[in-house]
Amino acid sequence: MKLLIALHIIQLLTSNVHASCGYGTHLHRREEDGEIPPPKFGYDGLEGPLRWAELDIAANTACNTGTRQSPINLITGSITVDSGAAYKLAIADTPEAEFENLGTTIEVPITGTLETAVQSYILKQFHFHSPSEHLVDDVHFDMESHFVFEAEGNKSIAVVSFPVSVGATNDPLLGTVLSKAGNITATGSVTATPPLSFTTLIMHLESNPVFRQVLSLS
């Protein structure tokens, strides 16, 4: 399965919008007191993508006029494809990590690095969308996991996105994290994950083709 990666992502939503994909970066810093503000948008119904511009006309203009506004339908024949070996991902195994409900997604704040040919990035967090935020050739995946990175110098953002399909066996990392999702059903709730190993995920990235696309954050 090909993986999706969006490098040097254009931030089209202003800081007034609850940008869950950019949470923990300079675009949407974490609250010092740990409080999670209520979400100002959603992914379906009256707060879904088709109405993001209407939710805050002054702040969300780009949601209506932008040409790279997430979510989008990625067409394989028109996307740049790189070798996964060109992306050096490093995330240390950890005995546990914080796992929190942001209202729009569930997220694990964690550190790591991503090295590309042109930029070095620091991992800020990873989170989930179900069903997948983006489509590939008109098809949704059951889930999509976003690993969000920020460059220290120019503050550019990179998101490595792993599409996920339901299968007979659990992915070692995702299965471990999501086993605790039932503990954080309310916005603002927090729990701890079991020990996390990123070895399989890193090998998967480095051994597969990678789609590269410039998009907005949502």
Describe the fold and architecture.
- This is carbonic anhydrase.
- By secondary structure, the protein is mainly beta.
- It has a single domain, classed as Carbonic Anhydrase II (Roll).
- It has four helices and 14 strands.
- A hairpin with a 6-residue loop joins β11 and β12 (157-164).
- The model is unreliable at 4-19 (pLDDT under 50).
What is the number of beta strands? 14
Q: At the fourth CATH level, what is the homologous superfamily?
A: Alpha carbonic anhydrase
N-to-C terminal Cα separation, in Å?
A: 24 Å
Structural class: mainly beta
Counting DSSP H or I runs of 4 or more residues, the number of helices is 4
State the major sheet. Answer: 11 strands, mixed
What Rg do the Cα atoms give? 16 Å
The low-pLDDT segments are 4-19
Keywords: Lyase, Metal-binding, Signal, Zinc
Family: Belongs to the alpha-carbonic anhydrase family.
Protein name: carbonic anhydrase
Catalytic activity: hydrogencarbonate + H(+) = CO2 + H2O
Helix and strand arrangement:
Elements: E1 3-6, H1 52-55, H2 61-65, E2 73-74, E3 80-83, E4 88-90, E5 98-101, E6 106-109, E7 113-115, E8 120-129, E9 135-136, E10 139-140, E11 143-150, E12 157-164, H3 172-178, E13 190-192, H4 199-206, E14 209-212
Parallel strand pairs: 1-14, 2-9
Antiparallel strand pairs: 1-12, 3-14, 4-7, 5-6, 5-13, 6-8, 7-8, 8-11, 9-10, 11-12
